[in-house]
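Comment thread on ticket #2218

A.B. wrote:
> Attaching the input chain for the structure job we discussed in standup.
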Amino acid sequence: MRRFWRLGGAAGVLLLSVGLVGAVPGGAVAGRDRAGTLSTASAPSAALGSPIDYTVYLPYGYADRRNATVRYPVLYLLHGRGDTMSAWTRVKADLDRMIADGEVPPVIAVLPDAPWSGRGSWYVDSGYTGADDPGRPVETALTRDLVSYVDATYRTAAHRGARLVGGYSMGGAGALRYALAHQDLFANALVLSPAVYRPLPPADSSAREYGGFGAGDERFSADVYGRLNYPALLPALDPELPVRLFVAVGDDEWANPDPADAAHDLDYEAATLYNTVRRSEAVSAQFRVVDGGHDWDVWRPSFVDGMRQLAPTLSVTPPAGLPRPLHGTAGTDWAGGIAADPDGGATIGYAASGPVAGQPYAGGLDAVLTRLGPDLRTPQWTVQFGTPANERLYGVVPVADGGVLAAGYTRGDLDGAHPGSPADDGFVAKLTGTGERAWLTQLGDPSKADRFYAIAPAPDGGAYVAGYTSGAYAGTSAGDKDAILVRIGPDGQVGWSRQFGGPGEDKAYAVAADASGVYLAGSTSAGMPGSTHLGGVDGWLARFTPDGTRQWTAAEGGAGDDLLTGLAITTAGTVVATGSTGGDATAGGTDALTVAYDGTGRQRWRTVSGGAGDDAGAEVLALPGGEVAVVGFTGSALGVPAGAADVLTLRLDRRGKQVLAAQYGTARDDAVDAFGEENVYATRAEDGKLLVSGLTIGSPAGGGALGNGDVFVASVDPTGGLP
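C.D. wrote:
> Ran it. Output below, let me know if you need it in another format.
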């Protein structure tokens, strides 16, 4: 069982998330015979002026005094037209079993009764005033009065990430509306055979009969229906409050004999719903077509399947966000590195698509370096440089005199000595502690593309830079692209260069060095010299002596695609590399791969970490005692999910055992770019904390997004894993 911890409050108390797979309150391991309880109750409603009856499911152990401080996620399950609150009680056995088996966390389930409008309220606030059965403010009553009462009465986790609303038929329509119209309340919705129609219900639909969508003395108003229906809600959704939908329908739904209404069959409408909502930036959706009709033969297995999909995102702990401010421009910007400064601040590098802090903008993407004070918020200076073409940064490291070195690539004449350059060149620049540019070195094959993707400081104040060449920069080309390693002196002069590779495409993404040697890591499509090709794209690791002699090369991966993108030399003397693997993923997508080797090229341990989504390591940092911290991104629920892709922090002990997994971010993608590649950097500060900088497409709590892709800076405690 993985352990997910977060730092709780100023006292630093560690709290265990109730959302853990397999965790059961009270310290007991649940068995199949440990059942929850059902009881009925009523909640006062100011909107209705009368109580709301409901049935409540409390999980096994809720009443145990050992769990007196435990809080739980809540399911709100809406019944169909004409049914009662007892309808959903048939899934009690499923909930008991899934909780006992660890498929879902212990949850509270609230099953409200909806008797209004002849049990055809459609769960909306009705404006029908007919004397026979006037409409009622049902939506307000359930989303405000009932939710408030439940949070005050039971030990719930009172935030949207711990709430799920579900329903079938009319209840499915209600669940969909509540999730879209009340993003502040619900982050998840289970939408089963929803009775939703666009643009209007068919002539024989009961949605027209009961007054739910009425106005005045009209039982049905097309204007009211259109205003409340999901197509009208989608444009106003907030992408910073993402909604996860699970939509399911039977393949034997009733077929309307009227050809004009054939598109209103619920299987057709459910598919239309899915293909509409999935295009919203605020919605992630899954869709299932199940064998069966408009009955519990569809709804019960779909409830089980939907809970398996959505339950991992339910957590009593709110997701951890990103701190403000963000850095960048109104356009798209890319993270490019972070270095710890002696005064406790940091220098960040990034590529900007416009002017920053009043600096001149050359065009395309410019390289930007900003020094932040010890609060990591206040800029002390900003330097921007570039050409009319694009420049990218891929690493920033400190030097002993208080300055920094930065590496990347340019598509222009950055140093003034490469006019008319037809392809990318690598470059390294030094800035002083006050932001003056001391020197800039641009190099590469004159006619082919060359890029630097990594930089490590050298003992003399120079650096090792690594990347690839498409030509013959430092030797004869072995194939499509070759890896390169270049030694740069403290004056910016090239000491030596090495080019090596196999017949395919080879790139170096990471470099690390100490006084005894240099390590390089990357990817290869057809194998590197001195190693065996394992299949697909392989990760690789190589060691060089300080004078550039290659000592050994090792391949990492399996039959799928694998790569290594981060390196660190630990206090135990091993070199640890991180990246991703698609060849032996544990649960789907790609997983974060971390491996350790000794100085002779012998593997010491190998760890794969991941979940159902795409996960990857980007940076690895040495911690005391031979432990390491891995920073990357995750599309899984390894901690408490914040959005689409989150920043990931892992802590591994000296033997590679995972002892911490945490994630944090915004409601949208963080630490990963539009191409699914990691865009996050990390280093260790003098106080032992991790300094993390990366790309975010979202916005921190309280706002602050500058454009379509900004750069964040966070200080992370490696013992807690969250900023």
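A.B. wrote:
> Thanks. Noting for the ticket: The first helix runs from residue 92 to 100.
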